């Protein structure tokens, strides 16, 4: 396993711990000691090699202004203008290394809006959210309650550009990018929102609890019913979450049917 691979494993590990709200370690390919050493390493000095170069750049720029501070009022834009603004956005550091801005997929007039977290490598390459294995699983999850990406769902992420190395989005990146999501929700005007994964669940519910304690309830985002569940990528890693995710989908179907 390369240093970069290990760093990505640690990022996934930290997210799993947060989602579980528990102290158990359950990663493939790393012993407990390795994991703890890597966590300490991640919290401390920059990791050498290419990953380290990324982090060094990031650290340098955290105190520097972003290249093109964008003061455009997104709340006044229509859908096409919003999409156009995102495509050229330089609001945060993630603009520097992206291949594509990943704005949305699906039907902008759909009743259901699915909100994920951030693009990964496949999404960055294609410009489409939820492709690859996690995307296929999302499509299967939706099909299990008679919904299809093409016709009956609009899909987007909290963050529109890929965080390098699939690291978690930083708080300032979420704050700078979330006005796009806010305006997307206003313009798409879904009847129901499904937040998948920790970052979208916390942002849209305003709660800080781990995902495992947020799911299973119906929230309201600006008057729109909101349900939260695990990210399909997390489900691929943790089969134990399949049953609760299935329950969340049934809850979602019920809310859609009741409207
Ligand atoms: S992540 Fe969002 S705020 Fe940052 S550059 Fe991309 S579109 Fe702009």
Given this structure, which CATH class of the largest domain is correct? Alpha Beta
Bound molecules: iron/sulfur cluster
Average of per-residue pLDDT values: 82
> Tally of extended strands?
6
Based on Cα principal axes, name the global outline. globular
Radius of gyration: 18 Å
What's the total helix number? 12
Could you give a short description of this structure?
By secondary structure, this protein is an alpha/beta fold. It has helices spanning 3-20, 32-43, 49-62, 79-87, 121-126, 132-143, 149-152, 171-188, 198-205, 211-214, 232-237, 242-258, and strands spanning 105-106, 112-116, 153-157, 192-196, 218-221, 224-229.
Describe the structure.
The protein is of the alpha/beta class and 259 residues long. It has twelve helices and six strands. The chain folds into two domains: 60 residues; 185 residues, 3-Layer(aba) Sandwich (Uracil-DNA Glycosylase, subunit E). Strands 1-3-2-4-6-5 form a six-stranded mixed sheet, sandwiched between helices. It is globular and about 40 Å long. Bound molecules: iron/sulfur cluster (SF4). The site of iron/sulfur cluster has 14 residues, from α8.
